[in-house]
Design brief:
Oligomer: single chain
Length: about 120
């Protein structure tokens, strides 16, 4: 089992940058694929980015490609989401999630943080 705590959210202007952090507990952190999701007001939660347990592969939603970067440090048990050139449509609660490395990708992420609010004004 892993516990996740996000931080780094805030209120910014369009074009600004933010870096979200997700601190994970437990010695097995290195065995989890990690992801960021977000949920805008009145909308369903959506996938943003993911990184495999080794950090060797990443994937992004089309809406954030070229602007967001996901990375991890398995020594620090931390995953980051660097968000550049933020847009008002990036506003939402951002959640960190973990899934055991050999869980089929069709399965939902198992563990979730409490979320951190990102607000981008125009």
């Amino acid at each position: 089992q892993v516990q996740l705590v996000e931080s780094g959210g805030g209120s910014v202007q369009a074009g600004d940058s933010l870096r979200l952090s997700c601190a994970g507990s437990g010695r097995a952190f290195t065995h989890y694929n990690m992801a960021w999701f977000r949920q805008a007001p009145g909308k369903e939660r959506e996938f943003v980015a993911q990184i495999v347990f080794s950090g060797g592969s990443t994937d992004y939603a089309d809406a954030v490609k070229g602007r967001f970067t996901i990375s991890r440090d398995n020594v620090k048990n931390t995953v980051w989401l660097q968000m550049n050139n933020l847009k008002p449509e990036d506003t939402g609660v951002y959640y960190c999630a973990a899934r055991w490395f050999d869980t089929p990708p069709t399965h939902a992420y198992e563990y979730w943080g409490q979320g951190t609010q990102v607000t981008v004004s125009s």
